[in-house]
Amino acid sequence: MSASMSAILEVKGVTKRFGGLVAVNNVSFGVNEREILSVIGPNGAGKSTLFKLIASFLQTSAGEVRFRGDRISDLTPHAVARKGVVRTFQETTIFRGMTVRENVIVAHHLRAEASLLGYFFGTRAARDDNRKFGESADEIIDFLGLGRQRNELASNLPHGHLRALGIAIGLATNPSVLLLDEPFAGMNHDETMKAVEMVRSVRERGLTLLLVEHDMPAVMKISDRIVVLNFGEKIAEGTPAEIQRDARVIEAYLGTEDAMIGM
Amino acid sequence: MSRATQIGLVAAFLLAVLVIVPWTIEATGRWDLYYTLTSVALLSIASAGVWLTFYIGRINIGQGAYALMGGYVSAILVVNYGVSFWLTLPIAGLACAAASVLIGLPILRLRGVYFAMVTLVFTEVARLLALALPITNGAKGISNIPLPGGVSLFGLTLVPDFATLANVKPAFYYLAVILMIVCFAGMYRLVHSRLGQLCRSLQQNEELASSIGVNIAYLRVLAYAVSSFLGGLGGAIFIAISRSVYPSSFAVQDSINFMLNCFLGGLGYVFGPMLGTLVIYFGWDLLFLTGRWQLLIYSTALIALMVWLPNGLLSIRLPGRGGGRS
Which of A137, B18, B298, B316 has the most CB within a 10 Å radius? Predict the structure, then answer.
């Protein structure tokens, strides 16, 4: 598979140094349109740092990230989101004091047509926005199976639903590329399999997905391609089958049985 | 709460503050209450500003600085340049908002106790500036500020010249209360529009807010500017009533009180600062009867309230819903 042919997101020689520590070292790869690409690697391999660099939550020390050919590396996170590259978070980062529906509605911010002043005065554009956001939020909530929790306070949701809400928030921004940070962490087998289906169905909406994930079976099941990091460097890239055969990957990561089961 | 109940409550409130209170004061001859209630109205406008910074997740203990600045801007314009008091009101507010943008850009990056600590020094800085700058006339301050003049449009008198009034107290009362109503109506609108939702997204998680595309730096500064505008506005009218302004007109204690007003009323409720200001102002005065125990009882009561009513007085009304929503 040619990586550059229709790459929507290009990571080019990205490097991040924290003082003397090189967290990410000269990593390059491309993500194709409507692809599910996973970044894996042992703990401390630099996966999360790479994610933050792509979403511009951190500034690169060298190299750049391009989205549809435009450099997005120096933009602020909200400007990167505006371009269409949106990050969801590890753990349970949501607006805890809002209901599920309010969470998803507020995340429609990038689709707003009315100005802030327009919202204050309740102009026609603002009322249209509010109606559209409500309808779209309901659609997303149903799509991710959160219909019954719609008016539940987000802080009261159980773990699995929180993850779905995180993805719902991401979808509400109408992104081209959605970055999912460990979407299967802390889930048991059944939950993971349901979440895998959920992530697949998200791709069916026309999105490109980039995952950082520990859960090996899930990664092998879901990914079109996989990028493997170790000590901040890319050591392999390929289809799940290729990665499973790759000697360097087996040595770095899959070498011990514990690494596969213990995650 | 249904729409009808809401309209009923608003109508009852307007009737109370605009008709019943003045009528009662005239009937009982307690003219001093005009001054007290005017102060409450003005302080609650400044407190509303502090409340808004709470609403984006920042503890603001520096509102006294903006109240002082608003007061000086209005006083200097009226006394030195003969500008109409009415024109100085928006100018004072805007000057404070402009200053707060410059100050807010760097410091609004700070969160929690760090932001609070920085704002805590503002009031003292403002006092020292007022002492040092030539235009503020040092410790002597500015006194004998003329009363607000009249406003007429096409020969129609909209506002009478305050100097021609037999009793200026009701005039200031109406001015303060009407402005308070307008400010709180604006705040209510802000909080219940999408803007309020965005503010709450900042309060709850700034990282997530920025990842869904909210320009958090801009929104923070905007909210802080509105907050300081209200501080300057309240301060300017206060100075017009006392007809003098000194470096100590608003001190650190006032800044702390603005914050306490919000805590007491309830951070989750738009009208919290209004109720909080009323209770603290009158509570303090009532406790004066206890003599030297005043401060002790006052402090104990505040501590007790924060322990048992962390969501403020207005949370009593809605026991089932929990705090944080309004």
Answer: A137
